[in-house]
Every structure is written in structure tokens, then in C-alpha cells.
Fold non-specific serine/threonine protein kinase.
Amino acid sequence: MIPMETYQQPSPLTGVVLDGRYQVDTLIAAGGTSDVYRGLDLRLDRPVALKIMDSRYAGDEHFMTRFQREARAVARLKDPGLVAVYDQGLDGRHPFLVMELIEGGTLRELLRERGPMPPHAVAAVLRPVLGGLAAAHAAGLVHRDIKPENVLISDDGDVKIADFGLVRAVAEAKITSTSVILGTAAYLSPEQVATGETDSRGDVYSVGVMVYELLTGRTPFTGDSSLAVAYQRMDRDVPPPSAAIRGVPRQFDDLVHCATARDPAGRFADAAEMADQLDVIVRELDLPHFRVPAPKVSASHSSADTTAVTARTNQPTNTRVFSRDELPAFDDDTDDDSEADTEYDEYPSHTGHFAGVELEHFYWARQRARRALLFWVIAVITLAGLAAAGAWTLGANLPNLI
């Protein structure tokens, strides 16, 4: 739920054993409401990730009830696109969650490292993300905070969603206002901004914004504050990615358009429906298979080597809690290119490259692959025709030969 920053100071929890079972090791990252550590399950001798919540939540009965309920619900989900939840508990003053340890990094770190992605790489990210979300939606669960920080990429190329259920648990805590909007400004659906409520279609909207960012290197809305960014989607549509970067196929423009419709009824009903449309696009464009690389420089990799110190200079993009009363008045006549819209940009634009290769090169590579496939199809058909003609000629002249 909370995007994490590499934490370079020793933590007082390092070395502590939670619940007599989980040893806390290196701090991977720190956020506003929780910290994530490498850990070791002493009973099973298994590396794990430990998300340890802030101590202020320990005495909140509403939070603990929701926290336990969401953890049990997510632990029942089985899908390759979801980070597995093993256990949850309360040790002293710290609620904690025990999860699968993903050696690699986040999608945010990959974007910072390599910039926008070509369509086939975007499809490779989306397939497991939508698959994991589809499993959750089928079970009646909604993530509420889909963004690149919550998409993990392993060193083996596995893509998984993390932090299911934590947004709702925090939102229902007594220490938060009863009238809050919780999430990350750049990815909130209009209904989350308006009412704080959402369903599977809210996750679809967030995925649509993320697709726009993967293709272009930036999020669609900017403003003078995170609140203004969140509020803009109430009156503005997400523009087509092709308007921001050349070479984006029309099918991806249509995918983003449907996923980010301001009216939830105009969106894909859930992640499964969006995944079906993605499959159609992959077939239409003949997109090649792609193995998503883990970022080389990541908080996870840095924490694996306790002697390495990685300086993080990127501005954090924390999950925000703010009252609807704090929302600025919005002028419907505001010019899209006004100064207020350009002062605040959580995710700055990158050049049109991926892994150091211009995006247009991926397009031409796909065209060459298509031409090569067409050549071989024609060759096979020609050879088959010649073989058939030869067989027919031989059969017709067989009596004469005998």
C-alpha cells in the first residue's frame, strides 16, 4: 500500500524475533504506516518478507479486526500474479504480516531505470497483474491502491501484486477520519475521490492509468499538488497514450480509454474482462513473448547486501490520507495547459527508450518478424504445392511406368 524508500539507518527492530518465530533482519524499505524487512521463519527455515505496521495501530480494535480479516482472505487466494501471504500477528506493539519474499524490485524502480516500455513489454507486465486481480475480484476482494510501487518483479521475471487489503484496513482505523480519501493521487478512480468507495472497476481504472504510464513514462494528470491531481479526473478524461508518445498502437489507446472511463459503468467490469481484451490485442498485434526484467538497482537488492548503501534521490510518492474538505475548488474552465497543471508532476517524463533502445526499433523488429513469418508460410505452402503436384503427376503416369 505504501511506496517504500530504501532505509539506510539501522532499525531498532533488527534482530527481534516476532511471535517467537519470525526473526527480523535487514530493513528493506520504510513508509508512512509500515516498514518492510527481510526476515526468517525460524520454524521452517524459510526467508520471508515482514511488513511491520506502525505501533499506533496496535491498540485500534477496528484496524486489527480488518487487518486480520483481510489477511485471511488474501491468504486463501492462489494465483501466480499475487504475493503469497503466509501469516499475520501482533507482537507487543506491532501488528505484522508475513509474506513471500520477492528477490528483485518494483515496477516503479524498473520505470525509473529504463523509462517507458514498448507494447509487448507492457503486455507482459499486464498479463500477471490482471490475472492476480481477476482472482481477487472473483473472490470479492478489491485492492484499492494499484500502482507501480505495488507491483513486484522477481529476478526470475515473475510479476506479482502486493499489499492487498491494507488500504481498507487503514481506512477503517479509528485513528483516521471517517471522511477520508485513501490512496495514491495519480491512480485514484473518480469515485474514490468523490465518495471514498470503489469496487473492482476502481482497480480497473488504476490499471488503466498504470498502462498509460508504462507506455509514456508519465501519469496522465499533473497539477500544483497531489490533491489537485486527484481532483482533475472528476472532470477530465485520461488522454490516449499515443498523444504523448509516438508508436503506441490504437488498440492500447482503446484499452486505456475503456479502463479509465469516468463513469464506472463504461469500464471493464473487472480485471478478467480487461484481461480478455488484452489477449485480443496481443493476437491482433502479434506481440512477441517478453520476459520482464527485474530492476538492477532496487531496495530489495540493496538490502540483500548489508554492506551496500544505495542513495535514493527520487521523490517518494506515498499513499496519501486527506479529507475531502481539503480538496481545492475546481474551475471547469481551467485551461488544460495552465501553469497550475504543470507545476506538480509526481512521475516525470522519460525519453522514448526502453533498455537503451528507441521504442520505434521495437516496432520495426515486429514488422521484420512478421515479414519473416510470412516468408516461411509462403515457402511452406509453395513446397507443399510442389509436392502435391509431383504426387499427382506421378499418380497419373503410374500405369505407363508399370
The longest strand covers residues 22-30. Residues 1-8, 177-181, 307-351 have pLDDT under 50 and may be disordered.
